[in-house]
Amino acid sequence: MSEPSRVARRRGLAERLWYGYARLIVALRWFVIVGWVAAAAAAMILLPPLGTTADDLEALGADDASFAAEKRSVELFGFPLLSRVAMVQHDPAGMTTLAQAEGVLRGIAVNQDAYDTALLGAIPIPNAGGAFPGAQEEDTAVITFLFAEPTASFFEQTDVAKQFAEDQLTDAEDAYVGVTGSMPARAAQGRVVNAYVPVVELTTLLAVLTVVALTFRSLAAPAVTLVSVGAAVGLTMGVAGSVAEALDFSVPADLRPLIVALLLGVVTDYCIFYLSGLRARLAEGHDRLEAARLATASFTPIVTVAGLTVAAGTASLVVAGSALFSGFGPGLAVTVLTGVVVAITLVPAILAVLGPRAFWPSDIRLALEREAGRQRSSALTSTVTHRGSAVVVAALCIAGLGLAASQVRHMDLGLGFVQSLPADSEVARAAEAAGEGFAPGIVSPTELLVEGDGVGEDEEAVSRLGEALQAQPGVAGVLGPGDSAAADDLGVLVAESGDAVRYLVVLDTTPLEATAIDNLRGLRESMPELTAEAGLDGVTTSLAGDTALADGIVKDTTDDLLRISVAALAVNLLMLVIFLRALVAPLYLLASSVLALGATLGITVMVFQGVLGHDDLTFYVPFAAAVLLLSLGSDYNIFAVGRVWQLARDRSLRDAMLAGVPQSTRAITAAGLALASSFGLLALVPLRPFRELGFVLAVGILIDVFVVRALLVPSLLTIVGTVSSWPSRRLRRREPQTSAAAPPARER
Asked: Phi/psi class of residue 505: alpha, beta or left (left: φ > 0; alpha: ψ in -120 to 50)?
């Protein structure tokens, strides 16, 4: 048997299978609809919701030596030096001597169990003359670090501290500003997210429904989308919750809105694809049920492979070493898979019931005639399908995207818990007040632990080390042995054994951002030299605190980059190769997606770090965006190029592109606008990471739709030509073939 005959037979079998699937769905349409409604309701009632957490740094990927240093410090001294909750008193005009003294005595009284509170201890630090070296002001502030039960959640520890402050700091002279620190900041982030999730969900839903309504000039089409999205959301939250329990992972509260936005976006995309197919089949003269069968048979393989590509791409995050990404990946994958299952069953069933009424009040044939006229006269389509002009278009696209991508080299990463909050939040105001009274790093100071035989007995060497630390770049102040009589009396800084000393190091920049992290790395590298110059030979040093944790999180995230990138690229390439049955086209398709991703990240760096002057990007934003944009780019590749592949069965490549590019572009544009709206509206959450995520994902989708899919990919396909399908000869066949979606005559 000749090769063309074998290919034709395989294609016929595939078509019969998909058409058989379509017939089954259409025949069982009412059972499918009722079944999905019941399943979604049952999932919402019976299955556990998707769990989120804002209660620990481990959920964000922290697994660093700094934790070990903190634990070692507690073992040596019997109590911690660091607290992640601080009570701030500040009066720029000056606090009275009495108010400052009361602030110190109040902290001491907590340690003596003088109050009826769940607090376990306190360390008060005033900025009175000489009490804290390096303070920016004098006699204006008292910061009291509070210690609560360490097993309590961020929310619980924050509430205990706030209740204590509100009970004790009742006079105007107390100059109470608020409670701050990384724990209150995380708790505040969680509360903001919980408050805004319903707003984001509702606004996003309205936005995507508006896009669908405008695309099809219909009121019924958005209703189809609404039912499909509702079933997908109801089912996904329960299924994802059950999977999370089974696999023992949780999603940080920061990322739950992203999962919802992704689900709304992809289900809407697939609804648009099916609606476009149904409209085309109805316009060809098919009756309601046959049009639904043909549209289902034609688009289900595309939607299935596209959805599997997105799910597999997001699931590639499981290769990450950090807990954040390894837990985030399964959540995204389950979300997309559930959306795909709903899309390929419920949407065709609804369309089979409605038929032309799915586009009410639009006249389908008139609408398609107008579109066909625009497609025939499209100068853009003619440009990208002519080899000479395609070379120019591709060169301009690559140059522009490459120039934007070059800005990625300036990208810095940080955490910035406090800085992510709205400026008027109590946590942010208290942190700013503490920074004015002391230094920006006072909210989350760094602990330096020095261990060595008899190190605490060499007072001169210990003092020299403190002076050397004070002189290091990025250090605003140091509190060490001999700097505070009260601290020395309590044994806070010198271990009773004499074999360990501690220093409280305050940085001159906000403690969880990129500049502070860089300064801490410099300090860590300098420690061997500093201890040697101070005369402390044979000692070991370790750093602890939030900045050290942030350093570890950023480092782990960066180390994950290679693993995540290789896994995501391999998965997306494999899905493209399988679907297109080619090697050449998948390579340049994936390369174009990578270039678009680089340009998106470069633009994000320019806007947030350049124009807005932020110190960095939130550490997980570029990596989450990279996986999503690569996967969604392959999603659109499959739809756009897959349509050309289908049409090229019985016509030349250029003719297939002239017919297929306009057809797919309209659907992809509508789908892209819906997805960009879904992601962009994450910016409604008044937290910096969400604004970064919303911006990078929306811009990335728009670049993908209007530059890569509309211009670059068609131009590359024209330039490379029929070689794109190598090693198959799919694009070289010219003989007429049976339509991709049409079944054999006897099955109609």
From this structure: beta
Q: Do 443 and 506 form a contact (C-beta atoms < 8 A)?
A: no
Q: Which residues are bridge partners to 477 per DSSP? A: 506
Contact (CB, 8 A) for 469 and 503: yes
Contacts of 711 (CB under 8 A, 6+ apart): 380, 384, 393, 394, 397
State the number of CA atoms in the 13 A half-sphere of 674 facing the CB.
33
Number of C-beta neighbours around residue 373 at 10 A: 10
Q: What is the mean pLDDT of the chain?
A: 84
**Euclidean distance between CA atoms 594 and 605, whole angstroms:** 17
Q: How many residues does the chain have?
A: 748
Tell me the residue type at 746. Answer: R
**177: buried, middle or exposed (CB in 10 Å: 19+, 13-18, 0-12)?**
buried
Number of H helices, E strands in the chain: 23, 12
- Range with lowest mean pLDDT among 22-26, 170-174, 298-302: 298-302
Give alpha helix (H) positions in 620-687: 621-647, 653-680
Output the CA torsion sign for 57, 59, 64, 70: positive
**Token representation of residue 4:** 């063309």
Confidence of residue 375 (pLDDT cuts 50, 70, 90): very low
Q: What is the DSSP letter of 608?
A: I
- 136 three-state secondary structure: coil
Rounded CA gap, 709 and 268, in Å? 19
Note whether 618 and 688 are within 8 A (CB): yes
C-alpha closest to that of 415 among 688, 55, 686? 688
**Residues facing 143 on adjacent strands:** 88, 125
Structure tokens at 244: 């999370």
Span 220-236, pLDDT tens digits: 999 999 999 888 888 87
Note whether 469 and 478 are within 8 A (CB): yes
Question: What would the pLDDT profile of 461-474 be if each residue is shown by its tens digit?
Answer: 999 999 999 999 99
* C-beta separation of 468 from 529 below 8 A: no
Query: 89 has which bridge partners?
Result: 142, 176
pTM, two decimal places: 0.85
CA–CA distance, 104 with 371 (Å, rounded to integer): 76
332: helix, coil or strand? helix
What's the token pair of residue 344? 């390929």
Residues 6+ apart with CB under 8 A from 638: 302, 305, 306, 309, 575, 576, 579
What's at 472, amino acid-wise?
Q
Q: Is residue 260 over pLDDT 70? A: yes
Joined tokens for residue 686: 């008044």
**CB within 8 Å of 239: residues ≥ 6 apart:** 43, 47, 334, 338
Local structure of residue 360 (DSSP, 8 states): T
C-alpha distances in Å from residue 480, one per residue of 81, 173, 291: 11, 30, 79
Beta bridge partners of 505: 446, 478
pLDDT of residue 50: 59
Q: Is 93 helix (H, G, I), strand (E, B) or coil?
A: coil
Residue 493 and residue 279: Cα distance in Å, rounded?
A: 76
Q: Which run of H or E residues covers position 544?
A: strand 540-544
Comparing 411 with 44, the larger pLDDT belongs to: 411
Instruction: Please give the Cα distance from 530 to 505 (Å, whole number).
Output: 14
Q: Other C-beta atoms within 10 Å of 38: how many? A: 11
Please give the residue that has the higher pLDDT: either 487 or 190: 190
Among residues 638, 625, 28, the alpha carbon closest in space to that of 273 is found at 638
Residues 35-53 have a mean pLDDT of 76
Question: 402: Cβ–Cβ under 8 A, 6 or more apart, which residues?
Answer: 595, 598, 599
Quick one: average pLDDT of 119-135?
Answer: 82
Q: For residue 680, what are its two tokens?
A: 């962009």
